[in-house]
Amino acid sequence: MHNIPVAKVLETAEHVYLNGEWVPVEQARLSVFDHGFLYGDGVYESMRAYGKQVFMSDQHFDRLERSARCLGLKLPVRGEQLMDLIGEGLSLNRLNDAYIRLVVTRGVGPMGPDPAPCQNPQLILIVRDIPPLHGQKRDGIRAALSSVRRCAVDSATAQIKSLNYLVTVLGKLDANRMGVDDVILLDSRGFVAEAPVANVFIVRNGIVLTPAPSSGILEGITRRVAFDLLSEAGLQVVERDLTPYDLSVAEEIFLTGTHAEIVPVCEYGGYPVGNGMLGPVTSILLDLFGAATGKGKRNGA
C-alpha cells in the first residue's frame, strides 16, 4: 500500500509520510487549517535508528500513546504498523542510522480551538540523517542558566510531548543571546529542571544526581537508559531536587536526549565544570551508550 516504484525513489533523496502515503519532501504539504498548526494540538515522538534498528522502540511508542491519551487523541497508526512505516522510511531514504520524528496532529477543522470537529488525525513521519544536537563533542559544550522557567509539574502539558514547544524555543533564544551552546532551565520553584530538549545529570562526590519528575521534566527515554547503564556499572544514581548551586559546584554535568544523545558539559556559567574536560563518569556513559546502540562498534571501538 505504501510502496513507491524504484524509479520514483531515484528521483529524490528524501521522502516523508503524509496523508497516508510517502511523498518527496518537496511535495509534502499540510493544510493551514490543521489544528496542529493552528493551536499546537497534537503530539510527537522522536527516536533513533542505529543499524536500521529502532532504539527503545517500545518505550517510545508507549510514551506516544500516553501523550495522545492525555489529549484524547486517537492514533491513526500504532505498534507494528508504525514499525513497518519506519522500516519503509529507512529503505526509501537509504538510511541505516536515522533520526525519526512521528507527529500526530488533531487534523483539519474549523477555526477555533474546539477539537471535536476534527475527525481525522494526521500522521506525519520524518526519517532523516540528522546528527546529534551538539555533534560528537566528547570535549563538551558550554552551558548557562536560563531565565526561562519550565512549566510547573501541575500544568496541562508538563509531561506531554505536545506540539507546543514555546518554552523550548524561548530557551534556545536565551542560549543564542548568551552565546552558549545550550541552557539549563529551572522549574517554577527554582530547582533545576532540564535543558530545552534534554535531561540534566550532574556528578557530585562520585554520585550521579538528576532532577526527579516532580520538577516538571519530560521523563526522557535516553534519561532512563543512562540511569540504567550507570546503575549496572555500579554507580549510584539518585533522583532529587537540584539547585543552581549544585550546578555550579558539580564535578561533571551531562545532558541526555534522543536528539542530543549523551552530551558532556565542560563549561557552565562561564566557569569550567570540574577540570573543564570530559569527566570519568560521563566517559563511562558515552562508552556504554555506544555499546548499547552499536555506535561504538561502527566507530571502531
Explain what the structure shows.
By secondary structure, the chain is of the alpha+beta class. The protein folds into two domains: 6-128, D-amino Acid Aminotransferase, Chain A, domain 1; 141-298, D-amino Acid Aminotransferase, Chain A, domain 2 (Alpha-Beta Barrel). The protein is built from nine helices and 15 strands. Strands 7, 8, 9, 10, 11, 12, 13, 14 and 15 form a nine-stranded mixed sheet that branches. A hairpin with a 3-residue loop joins strand 13 and strand 14 (261-268). Helix 6 (221-232) crosses helix 8 (280-293). The longest helix has 14 residues, at 57-70. The N and C termini lie far apart (41 Å). Residues 3-12 have low confidence and may be disordered.
Secondary structure: elements and pairs:
Blueprint: H1 6-11, E1 15-18, E2 21-24, H2 35-39, E3 42-50, E4 53-54, H3 57-70, H4 79-92, E5 98-105, E6 122-128, E7 141-149, H5 166-178, E8 182-186, E9 192-194, E10 199-204, E11 207-210, H6 221-232, E12 237-239, H7 244-248, E13 252-257, E14 261-268, E15 271-272, H8 280-293, H9 295-298
Parallel strand pairs: 7-8, 7-14, 11-12
Antiparallel strand pairs: 1-2, 1-6, 3-4, 3-5, 5-6, 8-9, 10-11, 10-13, 13-14, 14-15
Helix pairs in contact: 6-8
